[in-house]
From TrEMBL:
Coiled coil: none annotated. Keywords: Signal. GO terms for molecular function: carbohydrate binding. This is Substrate-binding domain-containing protein. GO terms for cellular component: outer membrane-bounded periplasmic space. Residues 1-19 form the signal peptide. Belongs to the bacterial solute-binding protein 2 family. InterPro entries: Bact_Solute-Bind_Prot2, Peripla_BP_I, SBP_2_dom. CDD domains: PBP1_methylthioribose_binding-like. It is found in: Cell envelope.
Length: 372
Protein backbone atom coordinates (compact mmCIF):
# COMPACT_ATOMS: atom_id res chain seq x y z
CA UNK A 1 0.00 0.00 0.00
CA UNK A 2 2.43 0.43 -0.57
CA UNK A 3 3.97 1.47 -0.41
CA UNK A 4 2.24 2.76 -0.23
CA UNK A 5 0.08 5.55 0.58
CA UNK A 6 1.93 8.90 0.52
CA UNK A 7 5.68 8.50 0.22
CA UNK A 8 8.04 11.41 0.16
CA UNK A 9 9.81 10.79 -3.13
CA UNK A 10 7.58 12.83 -5.43
CA UNK A 11 7.49 11.61 -9.03
CA UNK A 12 7.51 14.08 -11.89
CA UNK A 13 4.02 14.90 -13.06
CA UNK A 14 2.39 16.71 -15.96
CA UNK A 15 -0.83 18.64 -16.49
CA UNK A 16 -3.64 16.37 -17.55
CA UNK A 17 -4.68 17.15 -21.08
CA UNK A 18 -8.25 16.17 -20.38
CA UNK A 19 -9.19 19.32 -18.53
CA UNK A 20 -8.44 18.07 -15.03
CA UNK A 21 -6.93 21.41 -14.20
CA UNK A 22 -4.97 22.05 -11.04
CA UNK A 23 -4.21 18.34 -10.50
CA UNK A 24 -0.91 16.52 -10.34
CA UNK A 25 -1.28 13.98 -13.09
CA UNK A 26 0.07 12.06 -16.01
CA UNK A 27 -1.72 11.68 -19.31
CA UNK A 28 -0.16 9.99 -22.33
CA UNK A 29 -3.16 9.17 -24.53
CA UNK A 30 -2.10 6.98 -27.38
CA UNK A 31 -3.29 6.79 -30.98
CA UNK A 32 -3.39 3.00 -30.92
CA UNK A 33 -7.16 3.07 -31.16
CA UNK A 34 -6.87 4.92 -34.49
CA UNK A 35 -4.62 2.30 -36.02
CA UNK A 36 -6.43 0.53 -38.84
CA UNK A 37 -6.61 -3.16 -38.07
CA UNK A 38 -8.66 -6.13 -39.16
CA UNK A 39 -10.27 -7.81 -36.19
CA UNK A 40 -10.94 -11.53 -36.30
CA UNK A 41 -14.14 -13.09 -35.01
CA UNK A 42 -12.22 -13.93 -31.81
CA UNK A 43 -12.25 -10.31 -30.64
CA UNK A 44 -15.32 -9.47 -28.50
CA UNK A 45 -17.85 -7.54 -30.53
CA UNK A 46 -18.11 -4.70 -28.01
CA UNK A 47 -14.41 -4.01 -28.49
CA UNK A 48 -14.08 -4.72 -32.20
CA UNK A 49 -17.03 -2.46 -33.08
CA UNK A 50 -16.10 0.45 -30.82
CA UNK A 51 -15.46 2.99 -33.57
CA UNK A 52 -13.86 5.50 -31.20
CA UNK A 53 -11.57 2.90 -29.65
CA UNK A 54 -11.63 1.75 -26.05
CA UNK A 55 -10.82 4.54 -23.60
CA UNK A 56 -9.82 3.90 -20.00
CA UNK A 57 -9.02 6.22 -17.10
CA UNK A 58 -6.96 5.15 -14.07
CA UNK A 59 -7.45 7.41 -11.04
CA UNK A 60 -5.42 6.98 -7.84
CA UNK A 61 -5.94 8.97 -4.67
CA UNK A 62 -2.45 8.52 -3.27
CA UNK A 63 0.71 9.33 -5.17
CA UNK A 64 4.24 10.63 -5.21
CA UNK A 65 5.70 7.20 -4.44
CA UNK A 66 7.36 4.54 -6.58
CA UNK A 67 4.52 2.08 -5.97
CA UNK A 68 2.00 4.52 -7.47
CA UNK A 69 4.19 5.18 -10.50
CA UNK A 70 4.60 1.48 -11.18
CA UNK A 71 0.91 0.69 -10.61
CA UNK A 72 -0.08 3.34 -13.15
CA UNK A 73 2.63 2.23 -15.58
CA UNK A 74 1.49 -1.38 -15.35
CA UNK A 75 -2.11 -0.48 -16.17
CA UNK A 76 -1.10 1.84 -19.00
CA UNK A 77 1.25 -0.67 -20.62
CA UNK A 78 -1.29 -3.49 -20.44
CA UNK A 79 -4.04 -1.36 -21.97
CA UNK A 80 -1.93 0.17 -24.70
CA UNK A 81 -0.73 -3.30 -25.69
CA UNK A 82 -4.37 -4.07 -26.52
CA UNK A 83 -4.79 -0.89 -28.54
CA UNK A 84 -6.67 1.02 -25.85
CA UNK A 85 -6.23 4.66 -24.91
CA UNK A 86 -5.22 4.75 -21.24
CA UNK A 87 -4.98 7.98 -19.25
CA UNK A 88 -3.72 8.08 -15.67
CA UNK A 89 -4.15 10.51 -12.82
CA UNK A 90 -2.71 10.69 -9.31
CA UNK A 91 -4.25 13.08 -6.80
CA UNK A 92 -1.20 12.85 -4.52
CA UNK A 93 -3.42 12.47 -1.48
CA UNK A 94 -5.66 15.44 -2.26
CA UNK A 95 -9.22 14.23 -1.60
CA UNK A 96 -10.90 17.10 -3.44
CA UNK A 97 -8.79 16.61 -6.57
CA UNK A 98 -9.36 12.87 -6.44
CA UNK A 99 -13.14 13.19 -6.48
CA UNK A 100 -13.04 16.02 -9.01
CA UNK A 101 -11.04 13.77 -11.34
CA UNK A 102 -13.63 11.00 -11.06
CA UNK A 103 -16.52 13.39 -11.67
CA UNK A 104 -14.82 14.91 -14.71
CA UNK A 105 -13.99 11.46 -16.05
CA UNK A 106 -17.72 10.69 -16.14
CA UNK A 107 -18.15 13.18 -18.95
CA UNK A 108 -15.05 12.35 -20.99
CA UNK A 109 -16.36 9.32 -22.87
CA UNK A 110 -14.45 6.64 -21.03
CA UNK A 111 -15.54 3.03 -21.37
CA UNK A 112 -14.00 2.06 -18.07
CA UNK A 113 -12.37 3.52 -14.96
CA UNK A 114 -9.93 2.01 -12.47
CA UNK A 115 -10.05 3.66 -9.04
CA UNK A 116 -7.23 3.13 -6.56
CA UNK A 117 -7.29 3.89 -2.82
CA UNK A 118 -10.72 5.51 -2.77
CA UNK A 119 -11.08 5.18 0.99
CA UNK A 120 -14.19 7.25 1.80
CA UNK A 121 -17.97 7.13 1.44
CA UNK A 122 -17.78 9.71 -1.32
CA UNK A 123 -15.91 7.17 -3.44
CA UNK A 124 -18.81 4.74 -3.06
CA UNK A 125 -21.16 7.42 -4.40
CA UNK A 126 -18.75 8.20 -7.25
CA UNK A 127 -18.66 4.55 -8.25
CA UNK A 128 -22.45 4.36 -8.22
CA UNK A 129 -22.60 7.35 -10.57
CA UNK A 130 -20.07 5.80 -12.94
CA UNK A 131 -21.98 2.52 -13.07
CA UNK A 132 -25.29 4.32 -13.58
CA UNK A 133 -23.74 5.97 -16.65
CA UNK A 134 -22.76 2.58 -18.03
CA UNK A 135 -19.05 3.01 -17.29
CA UNK A 136 -17.30 -0.17 -16.13
CA UNK A 137 -15.38 0.05 -12.86
CA UNK A 138 -12.58 -1.84 -11.13
CA UNK A 139 -11.22 -0.64 -7.79
CA UNK A 140 -8.01 -1.35 -5.91
CA UNK A 141 -7.61 -1.06 -2.11
CA UNK A 142 -10.78 0.98 -1.79
CA UNK A 143 -13.76 1.46 0.55
CA UNK A 144 -15.56 -1.73 1.55
CA UNK A 145 -18.93 -0.12 0.77
CA UNK A 146 -18.19 -0.44 -2.94
CA UNK A 147 -19.05 -4.12 -2.56
CA UNK A 148 -22.67 -3.06 -2.60
CA UNK A 149 -22.42 -1.63 -6.12
CA UNK A 150 -23.38 -4.32 -8.62
CA UNK A 151 -20.98 -5.04 -11.45
CA UNK A 152 -17.84 -3.64 -9.82
CA UNK A 153 -14.77 -5.76 -9.12
CA UNK A 154 -12.82 -4.87 -5.99
CA UNK A 155 -9.17 -5.92 -6.08
CA UNK A 156 -6.58 -5.88 -3.35
CA UNK A 157 -3.30 -7.38 -2.38
CA UNK A 158 -3.75 -10.40 -0.17
CA UNK A 159 -3.01 -8.27 2.90
CA UNK A 160 -3.40 -11.15 5.32
CA UNK A 161 -0.78 -13.07 3.34
CA UNK A 162 1.51 -10.04 3.20
CA UNK A 163 1.37 -9.61 6.96
CA UNK A 164 1.79 -13.31 7.64
CA UNK A 165 4.84 -13.62 5.37
CA UNK A 166 6.47 -10.60 7.00
CA UNK A 167 5.65 -11.64 10.55
CA UNK A 168 6.77 -15.22 10.04
CA UNK A 169 10.14 -13.85 8.93
CA UNK A 170 10.24 -11.47 11.90
CA UNK A 171 9.52 -14.40 14.20
CA UNK A 172 12.38 -16.29 12.60
CA UNK A 173 14.99 -13.54 12.94
CA UNK A 174 14.05 -12.82 16.57
CA UNK A 175 13.77 -16.48 17.55
CA UNK A 176 10.33 -15.58 18.94
CA UNK A 177 11.85 -13.41 21.68
CA UNK A 178 12.27 -9.67 22.11
CA UNK A 179 10.78 -6.19 22.03
CA UNK A 180 9.08 -4.77 18.94
CA UNK A 181 8.21 -1.36 17.57
CA UNK A 182 5.08 -1.31 15.40
CA UNK A 183 4.73 1.15 12.50
CA UNK A 184 1.10 1.27 11.41
CA UNK A 185 -1.68 3.74 10.62
CA UNK A 186 -5.42 3.14 10.86
CA UNK A 187 -8.08 4.20 8.37
CA UNK A 188 -7.08 2.25 5.26
CA UNK A 189 -8.58 -1.16 4.38
CA UNK A 190 -5.16 -2.80 3.77
CA UNK A 191 -3.88 -1.53 7.12
CA UNK A 192 -6.92 -2.83 8.95
CA UNK A 193 -6.37 -6.29 7.47
CA UNK A 194 -2.67 -6.28 8.30
CA UNK A 195 -3.31 -5.16 11.85
CA UNK A 196 -5.66 -8.07 12.47
CA UNK A 197 -2.92 -10.54 11.51
CA UNK A 198 -0.45 -8.66 13.69
CA UNK A 199 -2.70 -8.78 16.74
CA UNK A 200 -3.24 -12.52 16.28
CA UNK A 201 0.52 -12.91 15.87
CA UNK A 202 1.23 -11.24 19.21
CA UNK A 203 -1.28 -13.48 20.96
CA UNK A 204 0.36 -16.57 19.47
CA UNK A 205 3.91 -15.45 20.31
CA UNK A 206 4.05 -14.42 23.95
CA UNK A 207 7.83 -14.02 23.82
CA UNK A 208 7.50 -11.00 21.55
CA UNK A 209 6.26 -7.75 23.07
CA UNK A 210 5.25 -4.47 21.45
CA UNK A 211 6.92 -1.64 23.38
CA UNK A 212 6.27 1.30 21.06
CA UNK A 213 4.41 2.31 17.92
CA UNK A 214 4.07 5.15 15.43
CA UNK A 215 2.13 5.83 12.26
CA UNK A 216 0.94 8.66 10.07
CA UNK A 217 -0.10 8.91 6.42
CA UNK A 218 1.19 12.20 5.08
CA UNK A 219 3.25 13.69 2.28
CA UNK A 220 6.33 13.33 4.50
CA UNK A 221 5.57 9.98 6.11
CA UNK A 222 9.15 8.71 5.75
CA UNK A 223 10.61 11.85 7.34
CA UNK A 224 8.17 11.79 10.25
CA UNK A 225 8.83 8.09 10.74
CA UNK A 226 12.58 8.64 10.75
CA UNK A 227 12.22 11.23 13.50
CA UNK A 228 9.88 9.02 15.52
CA UNK A 229 12.12 5.96 15.26
CA UNK A 230 15.19 8.04 16.16
CA UNK A 231 13.38 9.00 19.37
CA UNK A 232 12.52 5.34 20.01
CA UNK A 233 16.15 4.32 19.62
CA UNK A 234 17.12 6.87 22.24
CA UNK A 235 14.33 5.67 24.51
CA UNK A 236 15.31 2.02 24.06
CA UNK A 237 19.10 1.60 24.16
CA UNK A 238 20.92 -1.40 22.80
CA UNK A 239 19.31 -4.63 23.87
CA UNK A 240 15.94 -3.03 24.67
CA UNK A 241 14.56 -2.98 21.12
CA UNK A 242 15.09 -5.94 18.81
CA UNK A 243 12.95 -5.45 15.75
CA UNK A 244 10.62 -3.10 13.89
CA UNK A 245 7.57 -4.23 11.94
CA UNK A 246 6.72 -1.68 9.24
CA UNK A 247 3.33 -2.24 7.64
CA UNK A 248 4.11 0.09 4.71
CA UNK A 249 7.40 0.73 2.97
CA UNK A 250 7.16 4.48 3.60
CA UNK A 251 7.48 3.52 7.28
CA UNK A 252 10.32 1.11 6.58
CA UNK A 253 12.27 3.73 4.64
CA UNK A 254 12.16 6.15 7.57
CA UNK A 255 12.99 3.43 10.08
CA UNK A 256 15.90 2.22 7.96
CA UNK A 257 17.40 5.70 7.86
CA UNK A 258 17.01 6.19 11.60
CA UNK A 259 18.58 2.84 12.53
CA UNK A 260 21.51 3.38 10.17
CA UNK A 261 22.06 6.90 11.47
CA UNK A 262 22.07 5.63 15.06
CA UNK A 263 24.51 2.84 14.18
CA UNK A 264 22.24 0.26 15.81
CA UNK A 265 23.14 -3.17 14.46
CA UNK A 266 20.89 -4.81 17.07
CA UNK A 267 17.60 -3.68 15.47
CA UNK A 268 16.21 -5.44 12.41
CA UNK A 269 13.40 -4.20 10.17
CA UNK A 270 10.79 -6.29 8.37
CA UNK A 271 8.41 -4.44 6.08
CA UNK A 272 5.60 -4.68 3.57
CA UNK A 273 5.70 -3.44 -0.06
CA UNK A 274 8.65 -2.91 -2.35
CA UNK A 275 10.08 -0.36 -4.75
CA UNK A 276 13.43 0.41 -6.38
CA UNK A 277 14.31 2.68 -3.46
CA UNK A 278 13.44 -0.11 -1.01
CA UNK A 279 15.59 -2.66 -2.82
CA UNK A 280 18.50 -0.25 -2.91
CA UNK A 281 18.20 0.39 0.82
CA UNK A 282 18.02 -3.33 1.62
CA UNK A 283 21.20 -3.96 -0.38
CA UNK A 284 23.27 -1.28 1.33
CA UNK A 285 26.06 -2.47 3.58
CA UNK A 286 24.90 -3.21 7.14
CA UNK A 287 21.31 -2.45 6.25
CA UNK A 288 18.91 -3.35 9.09
CA UNK A 289 16.09 -3.91 6.57
CA UNK A 290 16.22 -7.69 6.29
CA UNK A 291 12.95 -8.59 4.56
CA UNK A 292 9.79 -7.26 2.95
CA UNK A 293 6.60 -8.90 1.73
CA UNK A 294 5.12 -7.51 -1.46
CA UNK A 295 3.11 -7.83 -4.65
CA UNK A 296 4.52 -6.41 -7.87
CA UNK A 297 2.72 -3.05 -8.30
CA UNK A 298 3.05 -3.19 -12.10
CA UNK A 299 1.30 -6.55 -12.06
CA UNK A 300 -1.51 -5.13 -9.93
CA UNK A 301 -2.11 -2.43 -12.52
CA UNK A 302 -1.96 -4.95 -15.37
CA UNK A 303 -4.38 -7.41 -13.74
CA UNK A 304 -6.82 -4.61 -12.91
CA UNK A 305 -6.70 -3.53 -16.53
CA UNK A 306 -7.41 -7.05 -17.77
CA UNK A 307 -10.43 -7.36 -15.48
CA UNK A 308 -11.72 -4.01 -16.74
CA UNK A 309 -11.19 -5.09 -20.35
CA UNK A 310 -13.27 -8.21 -19.70
CA UNK A 311 -16.05 -6.06 -18.27
CA UNK A 312 -16.00 -3.81 -21.33
CA UNK A 313 -16.12 -6.92 -23.52
CA UNK A 314 -19.22 -8.09 -21.66
CA UNK A 315 -17.51 -11.07 -20.05
CA UNK A 316 -18.03 -12.40 -16.56
CA UNK A 317 -15.74 -11.06 -13.83
CA UNK A 318 -15.53 -11.73 -10.07
CA UNK A 319 -16.80 -9.37 -7.38
CA UNK A 320 -13.42 -9.49 -5.63
CA UNK A 321 -9.89 -10.58 -6.43
CA UNK A 322 -6.79 -10.78 -4.23
CA UNK A 323 -3.26 -10.74 -5.64
CA UNK A 324 -0.84 -13.15 -3.99
CA UNK A 325 2.22 -11.92 -2.12
CA UNK A 326 5.89 -12.91 -2.13
CA UNK A 327 8.63 -12.57 0.49
CA UNK A 328 11.84 -10.79 -0.51
CA UNK A 329 14.80 -11.22 1.82
CA UNK A 330 18.08 -9.40 2.11
CA UNK A 331 19.77 -12.79 1.88
CA UNK A 332 18.19 -13.43 -1.55
CA UNK A 333 19.33 -10.03 -2.79
CA UNK A 334 22.90 -10.58 -1.62
CA UNK A 335 23.08 -14.00 -3.27
CA UNK A 336 22.22 -12.42 -6.63
CA UNK A 337 25.77 -11.13 -6.89
CA UNK A 338 24.60 -7.93 -8.61
CA UNK A 339 22.41 -4.91 -8.01
CA UNK A 340 18.77 -5.99 -7.90
CA UNK A 341 15.95 -3.66 -8.90
CA UNK A 342 12.29 -3.97 -9.87
CA UNK A 343 13.21 -4.89 -13.42
CA UNK A 344 15.35 -7.91 -12.57
CA UNK A 345 13.75 -8.91 -9.26
CA UNK A 346 12.06 -11.81 -11.04
CA UNK A 347 15.51 -13.37 -11.44
CA UNK A 348 15.83 -13.48 -7.65
CA UNK A 349 12.29 -14.16 -6.46
CA UNK A 350 10.59 -17.07 -8.27
CA UNK A 351 7.35 -16.06 -9.98
CA UNK A 352 7.74 -12.36 -9.23
CA UNK A 353 5.72 -10.11 -11.55
CA UNK A 354 4.30 -12.97 -13.56
CA UNK A 355 0.65 -13.92 -13.80
CA UNK A 356 -1.75 -14.94 -16.55
CA UNK A 357 -4.79 -14.18 -14.38
CA UNK A 358 -7.66 -12.90 -16.53
CA UNK A 359 -5.43 -12.98 -19.64
CA UNK A 360 -7.77 -14.13 -22.41
CA UNK A 361 -6.79 -15.44 -25.84
CA UNK A 362 -8.39 -12.41 -27.49
CA UNK A 363 -6.17 -10.13 -25.42
CA UNK A 364 -3.10 -11.95 -26.71
CA UNK A 365 -4.45 -11.53 -30.24
CA UNK A 366 -4.86 -7.79 -29.66
CA UNK A 367 -1.29 -7.67 -28.37
CA UNK A 368 -0.12 -9.08 -31.70
CA UNK A 369 -2.26 -6.67 -33.69
CA UNK A 370 -0.96 -3.62 -31.89
CA UNK A 371 2.63 -4.74 -31.42
CA UNK A 372 4.96 -1.82 -32.10
Amino acid sequence: MKKRFLAATLAATMTLALGLTGCSSKSDSQANSNKKVEYSANIPEKIAKDTDGVKIMVIRKIGGDDHTAQFLAGAKKEGQAMGFTVDTFSANGDTAKFHDAINQAMDKGYDGVIISHGDDEATVNDVKKLVDKGIKVVTFDSHAGIAGVKGVTMTSQDDASLAKLALDELNKITSSQGNLAYLWVDGFPPMVARNKVYQDFLKANAGLKEVDRFGVAAADTSVQTQNAVSAMLTKYPKGKLNAIFATWDAFAIGADRAVKEAGRDDVKIVGIDVSNADLQAMQEEKSPWVATAAVDPKLIGAVDLRILAKKIAGEETPDTHKLQASLITQEQLKKAGKAVNMENLSEVVPGWGKSDEFKEAWMTELNELFKK
